TrEMBL record:
<feature type="transmembrane region" description="Helical">
    <location>
        <begin position="59"/>
        <end position="82"/>
    </location>
</feature>
<feature type="transmembrane region" description="Helical">
    <location>
        <begin position="415"/>
        <end position="444"/>
    </location>
</feature>
<feature type="transmembrane region" description="Helical">
    <location>
        <begin position="329"/>
        <end position="350"/>
    </location>
</feature>
<feature type="transmembrane region" description="Helical">
    <location>
        <begin position="20"/>
        <end position="47"/>
    </location>
</feature>
<feature type="domain" description="DUF112">
    <location>
        <begin position="18"/>
        <end position="440"/>
    </location>
</feature>
<feature type="transmembrane region" description="Helical">
    <location>
        <begin position="192"/>
        <end position="214"/>
    </location>
</feature>
<protein>
    <submittedName>
        <fullName>Tat pathway signal protein</fullName>
    </submittedName>
</protein>
<feature type="transmembrane region" description="Helical">
    <location>
        <begin position="107"/>
        <end position="133"/>
    </location>
</feature>
<keyword id="KW-1133">Transmembrane helix</keyword>
<feature type="transmembrane region" description="Helical">
    <location>
        <begin position="391"/>
        <end position="409"/>
    </location>
</feature>
<feature type="transmembrane region" description="Helical">
    <location>
        <begin position="145"/>
        <end position="172"/>
    </location>
</feature>
<feature type="transmembrane region" description="Helical">
    <location>
        <begin position="356"/>
        <end position="379"/>
    </location>
</feature>
<feature type="transmembrane region" description="Helical">
    <location>
        <begin position="465"/>
        <end position="487"/>
    </location>
</feature>
<dbReference type="Pfam" id="PF01970">
    <property type="entry name" value="TctA"/>
</dbReference>
<keyword id="KW-0472">Membrane</keyword>
<dbReference type="InterPro" id="IPR002823">
    <property type="entry name" value="DUF112_TM"/>
</dbReference>
<keyword id="KW-0812">Transmembrane</keyword>
Length: 507
């Protein structure tokens, strides 16, 4: 392990790759600083630029965006009271009140320090547990992999906040999209007489359309409501370094606990920084000796939020690299980068591409250091960037998305694909259908079909999925996930009905 890591470190430490990491971190921070832009959007915009790069350079650039994006959300959260990304929502609870009482530099400094430590701890989790899970999964055959993908999709759909049926339908729609084009036996499916559909849909235009287009259209809808909210913001920020060191010295246990929560939650398919954010904030409040100070500007709240959402980075790589199952939406895009370069994530990746795995480790570490330096040195500029109006931002990002989709194959059809799926994604968003299960269905669909057919070619009996212990376990977990989600949905509906009755009684 030491040999391939040193070899990877040598490649990542080259001036060109280091420059790409710096660019990625800066772009990620900028993207995270702009309310409504999100980490995923930043990754989607940068994705097309990796086409002409070698695997190490492309992955290093994306890792830089990943690390910078998760830390960038703190800027608008502290300065404006508006979370730059969904994974920094709880940062606002204490960061904004601290800034309001005249300590924005302290709030930003605590958040950056917690993000740095959270990233380091998550890298340690990835280094130790990634190879172990990959080694264990070497025993997986097509039956186990098929059942694991089914479990991942049901788990994601089950985390759709009271919309299980919509989540399952979204996942099914994602799988359906991957069936367009030729199958394993060279039979043409769902081409509708269009020759361009013979090779199916490219993942990049579909993902950009479904997620980025719909998100940007939603941002435009909110413009009228948000007008005038950001006036009079003081961006003249200075970082009190000694005070921050003192604050962090008293947050050792909180930082460690929140980082481990973030790493663990990041390793679960379909969860990501938002879920980790709320869980770690809740746990920090429960373990605190002064829970009443949370929400008033306490360092504990900022540490819990920022350490956890940054720790998601390393944790989310564990299932992506070891099993080929993306931990969250940004990881699904990262998986697309690897596939684009002819590398299939999964247990064999640690044997066939150890240098690339080591490059991911090294990029995360170097990216974390660059993130701290950039945030502390350029925080005033990032605070100004957070004030960019949406009416300027949205057209620019849409243009970049269209250029990136066209650059994939120099094919105008891909821009039409982006537009069509953008409209579909926007309509689904309006109908409150979760988009994450759909995206993961698109990413995992081809692998699911390939493994399912391979299993049936080896043994045409469906009972084999139940007679093999691991595949039966994953299918049982998938069923349990659906049942538990149904229970949660009914509980949510019951609570809503009770609240409505209480409101009616009060009237």
């Amino acid at each position: 392990m030491a040999d391939f890591f040193l070899q990877a470190l040598g490649q990542v430490s080259s001036p060109s790759v280091l420059a790409l990491i710096v660019i990625g971190v800066l772009f990620g921070i900028i993207g995270g600083s702009i309310p409504g832009f999100t980490v995923t959007m930043a990754i989607l915009v940068v994705f097309p630029f990796t086409f002409a790069m070698d695997p190490v350079s492309g992955v290093s650039l994306m890792v830089g965006v990943f690390v910078g994006g998760y830390s960038g959300g703190i800027v608008s959260g502290v300065m404006l009271g508006i979370p730059g990304t969904p994974s920094s929502i709880t940062t606002v609870y204490d960061g904004y009140p601290m800034a309001q009482r005249g300590e924005p530099g302290r709030a930003l400094g605590i958040g950056v320090a917690a993000s740095f430590i959270g990233t380091l701890i998550s890298v340690a989790v990835l280094v130790f547990f990634g190879p172990l899970i990959a080694s264990f999964s070497m025993n997986f055959r097509p039956w186990e992999i098929t059942a694991l993908i089914v479990f991942a999709l049901t788990l994601v759909a089950g985390l759709s906040n009271g919309a299980l049926l919509k989540g399952l339908l979204a996942a099914a729609l994602g799988l359906l999209i991957t069936t367009v084009g030729y199958d394993r036996n060279s039979n043409l499916r769902f081409d509708f007489g269009l020759p361009a559909l013979g090779s199916g849909f490219e993942i990049l235009p579909v993902m950009i359309g479904i997620f980025a287009f719909s998100q940007l259209m939603g941002n435009l809808e909110k413009l009228r409501d948000d007008q005038g909210e950001v006036k009079g913001v003081d961006t003249n920020v200075s970082i009190p370094y000694r005070r921050i060191l003192k604050d962090m010295a008293g947050q050792k246990l909180n930082t460690l606990r929140s980082s481990l929560i973030g790493s663990l939650v990041g390793a679960l398919p379909g969860t990501g920084g938002t879920v980790a954010n709320f869980i770690s904030y809740d746990q920090a409040k429960k373990f605190s000796r002064q829970p009443e100070t949370f929400g008033t500007g306490t360092p504990s709240g900022i540490v819990a939020s920022e350490a956890s959402n940054s720790a998601v980075a390393g944790g989310a790589f564990v299932p992506t690299l070891a099993l080929g199952i993306p931990g969250d939406l940004p990881m699904a895009i990262m998986m697309g980068v690897l596939i684009l370069h002819g590398i299939t994530p999964g247990p064999l990746m640690f044997e066939q591409n150890p240098v690339l795995v080591g490059a991911i480790y090294a990029s995360l570490l170097i990216g974390a250091v660059i993130m701290v330096l950039c945030q502390l040195l350029l925080v005033r500029w990032f605070a100004k960037i957070s004030l960019i109006p949406q009416e300027v931002l949205v057209p620019v990002v849409l243009m970049l998305c269209a250029i990136g989709s066209y650059a994939l194959n120099n094919n105008l059809f891909d821009i039409w694909v982006l537009f069509v799926f953008g409209v579909i994604g926007y309509l689904l968003w309006k109908a409150e259908v979760p988009l994450t299960p759909l995206i993961l269905g698109v990413v995992l669909g081809n692998n699911l079909e390939r493994q399912l057919f391979r299993a049936l070619e080896l043994n045409d009996s469906w009972l084999t999925f139940l007679t093999r212990p691991l595949s039966a376990l994953f299918l049982a977990l998938a069923l349990a996930s659906v049942i538990f989600s149904l229970y949660q949905d009914r509980k949510i509906q019951r609570n809503r009905q009770q609240a409505q009755r209480s409101d009616a009684g009060a009237d």
